[in-house]
Amino acid sequence: MEMTLQLTIDCSDPQRMVTFWAEALGYVPEPPPGGHATWRAYWAAMGVPEAELPTCAGDVPESIIDPAGRGPRVWFQQVPEPKVAKNRWHFDLKVGGGRDVPLDVRTQRVKTEVERLVKAGAAVLRIKDEPDMGLYAAAMHDPEGNEFDVV
Amino acid sequence: MSSLIRHVTIDAADPFVLASFWAQALDGSLADDDFPGDPAAVVTTTAATLLFVRVDDRKAVKNRVHLDLQPQDRMRDEEVERLLSLGATLQGDHRRPDGTGWVTLYDPEGNEFCVERSAAELANG
Fold first, then answer.
1. Cβ of residue A149 closer than 8 Å to a chain B Cβ
2. Could you report the per-residue pLDDT of A130-140, keeping only the tens digit for each?
3. What's the complex ipTM?
């Protein structure tokens, strides 16, 4: 059986999330299909009722894709309600290279990536520096407070 | 430089049971060293790797991250029936009379996910 999947993330500001996560993941905003000028125009052409589209929805891309075709599509869906609890689903971003890479090399890679992501709008929640466990990782928040880890 | 998504990590009360459901749902595979009762379980699929980890806190509010599934070799409605038979439950039926729309389901621990129209159904408009 074949199946494709996308990740959908609730948010209040899709444009901000597209900008941050495209930068974080090396993704690109997904252009509207079929030559349509905007996603909103595409959805209208597909028969989505105007009443179901929030104001400004789809005026600019709200999804990002991996130009290399490795990772799943991610869609940032604007919702009215704010985040109120820790997410039960989160991303782990891999930069260290895995346990075959020496810990000091992994640590430096994670530190460099954390610095880059902070500049892009993320915040450090805590650092897990546990050399006895061979672990150096960072728990972070994206610009809307969604938890993710860098390992 | 940028990051690769290594895992999507999912909090679970019973990682092995939940991972087993998702392995069947996504036609993925459970890691060979995952057994019932383990504190973590990994499901590998062609599109992403899902890591289920045991947590003490229970799900209390709607998730802000969820999966949308698009069947490739069967119709949306067939896929919904298959997932219900695997242990999913219905959250909301958003199918429209003209054949468009989607269905929102809960996995066995109440995580929301959606089943969209198949590739063939989308191609037919």
1. yes
2. 999 999 999 99
3. 0.84
